[in-house]
Design brief:
single chain, alpha/beta, eight-stranded mixed β-sheet, 52% helix
């Protein structure tokens, strides 16, 4: 059962905090069963402990044998050093979840004891609002019960999608990096409002509510995004004028290239670490 699981985060950055915030808000686990750790930054650990009433400690104090789910949430570049440091500490029953972009289950399994249960996870920072789109992919030694518990945990921070691991890079491009695209869009909407004399705070609220409403339409209606766009676009109207400007300045293609750019980078990271595996 999920409420009996002890979950520990290795890494105390923004992604870890977003997930912790969502889990605490959802009451998926008692807060005393959520642990956050890092190598040495006591100030950050105490900040998260005070904010979320969870357990915080440096990595050297962790009792790895008591951890049911270990979530790796450090920077991808640090993965090999971390795997080496926990290889002789992590317990066979522990399910290791990685939220690191581009790091494959194969790479993690290679750096951990033979037969270690590994799940690759890609949430986004909307976890903090319990609105994440999260993908999960099972490693070689993970069974159905492990996946069920991981899904239950991650459902506490949003919607979970089980996908084939080879699709994880495009998921990263769409959802893992996706919130930044919308923030970038809102930056420019806010700028346009300010240029026309509207207060930034008002523009921000109007724009955010508009995006929220449009997203709900996509989620709850049967029409495709293209059909919904056509439904609200009258010939020679204001919406048509706005869309014409987007087309003129490459808006649609820029969005597609943003997704492809993030996907490409995720593949590059995987490739870099795969070369390390082969070399070793």
């Amino acid at each position: 059962m999920l409420n009996k699981q002890k979950v520990a985060f290795l890494g105390a950055g923004n992604m870890a905090e977003a997930m912790i915030s969502g889990m605490v808000e959802s009451k998926a686990l008692p807060t005393e069963q959520i642990i956050v750790s890092n190598r040495s930054n006591q100030g950050r650990l105490q900040e998260l402990k005070a904010k979320y009433d969870i357990t915080a400690m440096t990595k050297d104090k962790l009792k790895f044998e008591e951890i049911d789910m270990l979530i790796l949430a450090m920077k991808p570049k640090d993965i090999d050093a971390v795997l080496e440091s926990i290889r002789n500490l992590v317990s066979p029953h522990t399910v290791v979840l990685s939220v690191l972009a581009g790091i494959t289950t194969e790479h993690m399994e290679e750096g951990l004891p033979q037969g270690q249960k590994v799940i690759r996870v890609m949430p986004n920072t909307s976890s903090m609002m319990r609105e994440s789109a999260t993908a999960i992919a099972a490693g070689e030694y993970t069974d159905d019960e492990d996946m069920k518990l991981a899904e239950e945990l991650l459902n506490s921070i949003g919607e979970v999608y089980t996908i084939q691991e080879e699709k994880m890079d495009i998921f990263t491009g769409i959802a893992g990096s996706g919130p930044a695209y919308f923030y970038y869009l809102m930056e420019h909407i806010e700028k346009a409002g300010k240029d026309s004399g509207l207060e930034p705070e008002v523009t921000r609220q109007i724009g955010a509510q508009t995006i929220l409403g449009a997203a709900k339409m996509i989620m709850e209606r049967e029409e495709t995004p293209a059909q919904l766009r056509q439904n609200v676009t009258s010939p020679n109207g204001t919406t048509a004028a706005g869309l014409d400007a987007l087309e003129k300045f490459g808006g649609g293609e820029a969005i597609a290239q943003a997704v492809k750019g993030a996907e490409k980078r995720s593949k590059e990271i995987s490739s870099q670490f795969k070369k390390v595996l082969v070399a070793n």
